[in-house]
Amino acid sequence: MKEQSFASRRVVWVLVLAAFLLPLTFVGARRAVESNANDVEDWLPTHYAETSQFRSFQKHFGNDDFVVVSWPGCTLDDPRLDRYAELLRDRRVRRVATGEVALFEQVITGRELLAQLTAEPTVLSRREVVTRLRGAVIGPDGEQTCAVVTLRKPSRDELHAALQELSDAALAVGLSAEQVHLGGPPVVNAAIDRASTQSLVRLASLAGLIGLLVAWVCFRTVRLTVIVFIVATYSAALSLAVVPLFGVPLNAILVTMVPLVYVAAMSGAIHLSNYYLDSRRAGERDPIAHALKHAIVPLGLATGTTAVGLLSLEFSDIAPIRLFGLFSALGVWIGLVMQFVLLPALLAFWPDNSPLGPTVDTSADDDAPLLSPRWQRLASFVIGRQAWLSAGCLVLLVLGAWGLTKVETSIQIMRLFSPQTPIIASYAWLEQHLGALVPLEIVLRFDPEEQPNMAQRLALVESVQKQIATLPDVGGSLSAATFAPSLQSGSGRSLRSFMINRRLRQARPKLIESGYLAESDEGELWRISVRVNAVRDIDYSEFQRELQAAVDPLIASSPAAGKVEAIYTGAVPIIFKARHSLLDGLALGFGTDIALVVLAVALVLRHWSNGLLMLLASVFPMTLVFGLMGWSGTLVDIGSIMTPCVALGVTIDDVIHFVLWFRRGAERGLSVRDSVLLAYRGCGRAMVQSWGVIGLGLAAFSLSTFEPTFRFGALMIALLTVGLVGNLLFLPALLAGPLGRSIAASVQRRVAAKSRAKERAHQHAKQHDPSDASQPVAGY
Questions:
Q1: Is the backbone of residue 220 left (phi > 0), alpha (psi -120 to 50) or beta?
Q2: What are 108's strand-pairing partners?
Q3: What number is the average pLDDT over the span 649-664?
């Protein structure tokens, strides 16, 4: 313990505090995981005018928390459908009777709607009812149907309980779990909950195990490997435990904050551990203090720039991405504190006494180990061909930048799941045999000052609904006209028109109760709920233009009394608008990160050439990987948007360490070539170790069936691999060329200036020191 004197003074207090916080941390982390809740509507940008419009729609017509339940053989003549509906209603009654919360508000089946619409007062033929309900409640064959269950706005636990009750009721009427297909927004939200939680628990453990094994291969010492793993894991757990303290539930995007913090903490711990090992090789009396002294600037710069870059995600229009940026920034600072406090304490309490391997060349007056023959060959290759390597990488940068202009984004909800996920199979079956499932709403608002004529207004709603049905992407639609009597010859001033208007006014409360008619201060609102395809990636902007082209002429030529306005709303148009802002947020966030990095490094290291070097090295991996995605037509989705900021933090960490080692060589008067060799000696091994632990560890997330987690893992290993190649080839090649010579010259000028200033100060002190016997005495 003698050599760890710096940390040993407070090691006991640090370890006692860490032990005290450990159970609280795991309790908080467990609460965070259990709070995981996803409602796609909560992702909608609150400042959009479309979002305000959608909230107004929900205020008048309620939430769209409906679940469609169907199975093979669920036809208009299937008696199991009646038993299923009655069973659900009985369970609802029993829950209310025992004081529990009712999970369902309403259950209606295709058989019941057929019976209602063929009876008084509507009195439609079976054929007319099937035509009206086809594509929404009845399938294309005119026989396949379903049960539509409307849920109350549920909490996370209630949502899963409600869906489980739907499945249990199906089992009770003799159906197997494989036969029953469920669809609708609550089903999607629950699937996101399950997939994201499973990814966090299962794959985070696998990533941690891989990281532990790779760290052992890199260090070949159990103690140091375990210490680094403890620091990274504790940092990730603590950052997760902080989330419930802010009253924020976990969500599918925020869960990726955990591997990010693990990555950042592991990267910093690896670099700090290598500084510690190098200090031991150099024979330092207090290697921990010496390692901290060398690591504080690069680790502080890397963490600061990464945190500020993550905070730039606050510009995103999508709420989960903003939360990811905020809590990830907090998490990387937690990781830095753990690196500077817990890691030294663990090293002091449990010192690493393993063989040190290659000794330090003390004649060079540095702390870096000698290069192995393999590293020597790599360094010689890069330095000898620096011009070709620099030019080649710059050409790749230009091609990647061109590819960035071709990048396209998507936040289509069903893209959150892999093709093997059960919800994809259920949605495909439901849309093939029943109809489209994604709701898009059209509201016709009539002037409140005009005298109402319900027959004319209903006739306009019916004509709009029929016109919409001709569009290729529309699977079906529902409106008040679906449940009203036939309006043939009922729109003029005939006796029949008078009788229909009277019947409609009598039926008005029923239409309002059905959720397709509402009254407001702004006028009378008639709703047309359109169903569009969920599995196929529709260009909703173009689709909305088609809707307007079909609807607006009908409204303009309508004899309906008063001014009529068509409002197009629903979650779909907002999600599509947010899709376009996704790419803007990616460009803004990464651009902000780069600008901050370049500015910070140029200011701290006091020369523009450092900033330019940092710019080229930082954009290299992101430009190449996302440029390739642009060239190949691979869509950038919500799981891809955070990866540049994450990878940038690791890349910047390595770049800063490499540049500081290069500058250290220049300060000691070494040539550019020898300074590059010193940088390879100082952190080349740590860069590879960091890639192995972090990159291979995060690669485990590419095994996820949850698409954002899969994209995160796959893109992270790609970005980190390209970043490693760039930092071992492109960065040293730039330093070995004119840019490196400019940096070295600026460093040496500053060293010379300091030396001259020091010499002048020394001479000045000698001239004014009365104790100096060489100075003449006054009076002589």
A1: left
A2: 148
A3: 82
Q: φ, ψ for residue 409 (rounded to 5)? A: -115, 160
Residues 6+ apart with CB under 8 A from 717: 695, 696, 698, 699, 702
Burial class (CB in 10 A: 0-12, 13-18, 19+), 665: buried
Angle at 450 between CA 445 and CA 453, to 5 degrees: 80
Strand partners, 530: 440, 477
How would you classify residue 421: left for phi > 0, otherwise alpha for psi between -120 and 50, otherwise beta?
beta
Q: Per DSSP, what are the bridge partners of residue 169? A: none
d(CA 33, CA 91): 30
Model confidence pLDDT, tens digit, residues 113-134: 999 888 877 778 899 999 999 9
Tens of pLDDT, residue by residue over 249-285, are 887 778 778 877 887 788 788 878 888 888 888 878 8
Spell out the long-range contacts of 319-322 with Cβ–Cβ below 8 A and sequence spacing 24 or more: 319/42, 319/43, 319/44, 319/45, 319/46, 320/43, 320/251, 320/252, 320/253, 320/254, 320/638, 321/253, 321/585, 321/638, 321/641, 321/642
Q: Which two tokens stand for residue 548?
A: 């307007």
pLDDT the model gives residue 776: 45
Whole-angstrom distance, CA of residue 21 vs CA of residue 338:
13
Q: Do the beta carbons of residue 685 and residue 393 sit within 8 Å?
A: no
| 137 vs 147: CA distance, rounded Å | 8
CA distance 512 to 494: 26
| Cα gap 515→520, rounded to integer Å | 14
**Lowest model confidence (mean pLDDT) among 387-396, 467-476, 492-501:** 492-501
